[in-house]
């Protein structure tokens, strides 16, 4: 059973750690957080912010994103404690070398529509065997995504969180970018050995080994072997009404 009080306390400890690292004053932190959120269009009451700082609640998704951008930490770390803490580069920009010492920045992402494909197609997508027009429909992606991106409809409850925090229930739409670099703590689509279908899990690492971990603790963790193929990183999601 997940202890919600422990989850809240752990989140609060990480929030204070990030605030310390960012040089935010100790006294009056609630005021500073509230002021920053308001400046970026996230409206929260001072009472809600106080609960985050005192271990009584975990920030909601909109606040979590805004705080992570402000404090320059990864959401997976702040929300779940999954390392690394710091944001490593900008996944929307790729650095290229052009025949010498001159580096250029190429924007490789775009806002646009992507095909909604099946899980069997997602497994084939890993080998570039699936054309984009094979999608059952086209969906507008809410975040920047490469031309090879696609969408999937979540099946089952292995990525449903029984407690607070990020959850991907059945029917949720996830957007996958095969060109985005997947790091520890990221949600990924992977093709596991002896099957043509793909699976949706969290990429984790322990003692130098990598695993595919479901958010729902009732499901087993999957070992990553040489035959496991990471098909792409989940860069966004949408839960239909």
From TrEMBL:
Pfam families: Peptidase_S24
Domain of life: Bacteria
InterPro entries, sorted: LexA-like (IPR039418), LexA/Signal_pep-like_sf (IPR036286), LexA_repressor (IPR050077), Peptidase_S24_S26A/B/C (IPR015927)
Gene3D superfamilies associated with the record: Umud Fragment, subunit A
Domain Peptidase S24/S26A/S26B/S26C: 115-235
Protein name stated in the entry: Peptidase S24
């Amino acid at each position: 059973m997940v202890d919600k009080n422990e989850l809240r306390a752990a989140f609060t400890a990480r929030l204070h750690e990030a605030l310390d690292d960012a040089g935010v004053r100790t006294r009056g932190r609630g005021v500073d957080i509230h002021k920053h959120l308001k400046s970026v269009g996230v409206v929260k009451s001072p009472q809600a912010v106080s609960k985050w700082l005192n271990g009584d609640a975990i920030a909601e998704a909109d606040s979590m994103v805004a705080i992570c951008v402000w404090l320059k930490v990864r959401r997976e770390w702040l929300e779940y404690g999954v390392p690394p803490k710091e944001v490593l580069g900008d996944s929307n920009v790729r650095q290229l070398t052009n025949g010498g010492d001159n580096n250029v920045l190429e924007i490789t992402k775009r806002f646009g529509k992507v095909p909604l494909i099946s899980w069997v197609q997602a497994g084939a997508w890993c080998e570039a065997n699936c054309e984009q027009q094979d999608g059952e429909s086209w969906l507008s992606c809410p975040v920047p995504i490469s031309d090879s991106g696609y969408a999937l409809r979540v099946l089952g409850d292995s990525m449903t969180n029984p407690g607070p925090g990020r959850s991907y229930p059945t029917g949720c739409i996830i957007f996958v970018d095969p060109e985005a670099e997947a790091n520890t703590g990221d949600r990924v689509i992977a093709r596991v050995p002896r099957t043509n279908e793909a699976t949706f899990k969290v990429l984790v690492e322990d003692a130098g080994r990598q695993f595919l971990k479901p958010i729902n603790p009732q499901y087993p963790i999957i070992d990553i072997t040489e035959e496991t193929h990471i098909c792409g990183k989940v860069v966004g999601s949408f839960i239909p009404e």
